[in-house]
Amino acid sequence: MTETLDIKITKTTHSRLAETDFDNLPFGKTFSDHMFVADYADGEWKNLQVIPYGEIGLSPAISALHYGQSFFEGLKAYKHADGKVTIFRPDKNAIRFNKSAERLCMPTLPEEIFLQSMAAVVDLDREWVPSKPNHALYIRPFMFATDPYLGVTPSATYKYMVICGPVGPYFSKTLRVKIETYYTRAAEGGMGYAKAAGNYGSAMLPSRKAAEEGFDQLIWTDAKEHKYVEEMGAANAMFMLDGKLITAEAKDTILDGVTRDTVIALAKEWGIEVETRKVSVAEIIEGAKTGKLTDAFGAGTAATIASVGSISVDGEEYFLSDPKTREFSQKVLATLDAIKYGRAEDTHGWNYLVG
Ligand code: PLP
Ligand code: COI
């Protein structure tokens, strides 16, 4: 049996629940009443606490701010019709959390702390888990370096925190995406597979340029030749081409997504051939031209299954079929939702019960 950790709980004296408009929840702007904080010092995690959500005091010299020793995870908790609350596949995020930590020379976090910290906040804030379709409580665990020292060296102290907030889907419409053939998100030997804060910062300029041209997301390509599709800015890119589900293999330039893994598992169970391999821009464009590309979507926790409506490359835009008519992504979305919201049996053991 796993040990129950000693987490000190201080409840808020002023809940913001009543003043929160659950019909208007732009992603990432609303936070629940509590958060989790723990400190790493002298080689161990200590001071495990749930406290009211709010500002924290930090030295302006912390190395997270200067040198980017900072990373995060993203998960969701769902409310079932019977009131149960479950978190989707947190064991996978726990593994990825520690891969990110190792890549950034930061301490790993025991899986029990990862799971129980989230469960403690979500349990206390269970009234914040929305019950509306397509809505969930987004959970953001993160770690950052806190040594007030400007030497470029791994910090000796860190904070691990969890904040949460009710959300709808990250993307509210069918995506118009651009294949990026100049800027690079991640190169071999880099940290693309880590959920490092810096990966997102470096993507902002190319994303803004694409947004100015009217695009919703970029599809990143390989750093060497810009000939192979890698992933999107906040989701893995998946395609149904010639009846096969294809997506880039998970390697050091790509975030190994939990949603991607889940979609692959379901597709295999349905007898669909799955190929995780190098996916060329040329074959995707050819598929779009010939109609063999019958589905294209971003897969991610925040994004859920986000349909791609058109793909542009080198100034040419290729339009895909109406997302409502796409058999595969519609079935994946419906199946995933049924499992996450407890309407279908969780035969894979993907739902982690809170409370
Ligand atoms: N790729 C990037 C860059 C992401 O930020 C995300 C979101 O977490 C994903 C892929 C999808 O990963 P997951 O399905 O684990 O959320
Ligand atoms: C997630 O899906 O959890 C993400 O981290 C995407 C995001 C950067 C909003």
Give a description of the structure.
It holds the Pfam family Aminotran_4. Belongs to the class-IV pyridoxal-phosphate-dependent aminotransferase family. With 355 residues, the protein is an alpha+beta fold. The protein has 2 domains: 8-168, Aminotransferase class 4, branched-chain amino acid transferase, N-terminal domain (D-amino Acid Aminotransferase, Chain A, domain 1); 175-340, D-amino Acid Aminotransferase, Chain A, domain 2, CATH 3.20.10.10. It has 8 helices and 19 strands. Strands 9, 10, 11, 12, 13, 14, 15, 16, 17 and 18 form a 10-stranded mixed beta sheet that branches. The structure holds pyridoxal-5'-phosphate and 2-OXO-4-methylpentanoic acid. Pyridoxal-5'-phosphate binds next to helix 6 and strand 16.
Chart the SSEs and their pairings:
Elements: E1 8-9, E2 34-41, E3 44-52, H1 63-67, E4 70-72, E5 75-79, E6 85-88, H2 90-103, H3 111-124, E7 136-145, E8 158-167, E9 175-179, H4 197-202, H5 204-212, E10 217-221, E11 228-232, E12 236-241, E13 244-247, H6 258-269, E14 274-276, E15 279-280, H7 281-290, E16 293-300, E17 304-313, E18 316-319, H8 327-340, E19 351-354
Parallel strand pairs: 1-3, 9-10, 9-17, 13-14
Antiparallel strand pairs: 2-3, 2-8, 4-7, 5-6, 5-7, 6-19, 7-8, 10-11, 11-15, 12-13, 12-16, 16-17, 17-18
The protein binds pyridoxal-5'-phosphate and 2-OXO-4-methylpentanoic acid.
Pyridoxal-5'-phosphate (PLP) is lined by residues 74, 231, 234-236, 255, 257-260, 299-301.
Feature tags:
single chain; 355 residues; alpha+beta; D-amino Acid Aminotransferase, Chain A, domain 1; D-amino Acid Aminotransferase, Chain A, domain 2; 2 domains; ten-stranded mixed beta sheet; nine-stranded mixed beta sheet; 19 strands; 30% strand; globular; binds pyridoxal-5'-phosphate; binds 2-OXO-4-methylpentanoic acid; BCAT-like_C; L-isoleucine-2-oxoglutarate transaminase activity; aminotransferase; branched-chain amino acid biosynthesis; L-valine-2-oxoglutarate transaminase activity
